[in-house]
TrEMBL record:
This is ABC-type polar-amino-acid transporter. It is an enzyme of class 7 (translocase). Belongs to the ABC transporter superfamily. It is a peripheral membrane protein. It comes from Nocardiopsis composta. It is found in: Cell membrane. It catalyses: a polar amino acid(out) + ATP + H2O = a polar amino acid(in) + ADP + phosphate + H(+).
Length: 247
């Protein structure tokens, strides 16, 4: 662990109209740490995720990535944003491009990599997520689980400092969830810094260094997975876990 956390949020507030979706959020994520954010629907988890690469603006507070405050807009923001990989619920792949083209477009356009180098790296990443044999197919020819693994490879191709996952398995059929979680678990074990919003409690227990529990726009508690699942300190978390874990 280094002196400066990789990602910090200080007193971050965000409203959507009257709705106060993030309330005084303070969070620091260290290099190589896997932080899993859980909580009931509407608790602000996805908004938190989206503010970290400024897909959502904030009303007040400061967000820094690797010691640099998130710029308002322009080139600085594009540069910083390319350090923050994002994997969404709905894979957001380019339908008219092959899998290989989807994974190489960012490194070629944003990182200015040569095509041959970008393709070589893309094929390594597709192999890493278990779908190198699908490189020349189009997204519509793949299952949801395969598309999400392409999306992970695409995010990794940018060589991000931190990878954000916003409910990456919630749009998948149940039998495809595990193949995506397996890829995420292996990334976690390799030391990738990750912030993961998910409902997958098994993944949280297995792969997280820290669980952050949110409710009503606030961080209610944070703890190691064992402490959180076995001995939550807040009534809110106890109620949430009893509902989730009884299913």
């Amino acid at each position: 662990m280094t002196a400066t956390p990789l990602v910090t949020l200080e007193n971050v507030d965000k409203h959507f109209g009257e709705l106060h979706v993030l309330r005084g959020i303070n969070l620091a994520v260290e290099r190589g740490e896997v932080v899993v954010v859980i909580g009931p629907s509407g608790s602000g988890k996805s908004t938190l995720c989206r503010t970290i690469n400024r897909l959502e603006t904030i009303d007040s507070g400061v967000i820094t990535i690797d010691g640099v405050p998130l710029p308002e807009e322009g080139r600085g923001l594009a540069r910083l944003r390319s350090d923050v990989g994002m994997v969404f619920q709905s894979f957001n792949l380019f339908a008219h491009k092959t899998v290989l083209q989807n994974v190489t477009i960012g490194p070629i356009k944003v990182r200015k990599k040569g095509k041959a180098d970008a393709e070589k790296r893309a094929l390594e990443l597709l192999d890493r997520v278990g779908i190198a044999n699908q490189a020349n197919k189009y997204p519509a020819q793949l299952s949801g689980g395969q598309q999400q693994r392409v999306a992970i490879a695409r995010a990794l191709a940018m060589e991000p400092k931190v990878l954000m996952f916003d409910e990456p398995t919630s749009a998948l059929d149940p039998e495809m969830v595990q193949e995506v979680l397996d890829v995420m678990t292996s990334l976690a074990s390799e030391g990738m810094t990750m912030i993961v919003v998910t409902h997958e409690m098994g993944f949280a227990r297995r792969a997280a260094n820290r669980v952050v529990f949110m409710a009503d726009g606030e961080i209610v508690e944070q703890a190691s997975p064992d402490d959180f699942f076995d001995n939550p300190s807040s009534q809110r978390a106890k109620d949430f876990l009893s509902k989730i874990l009884s299913h």
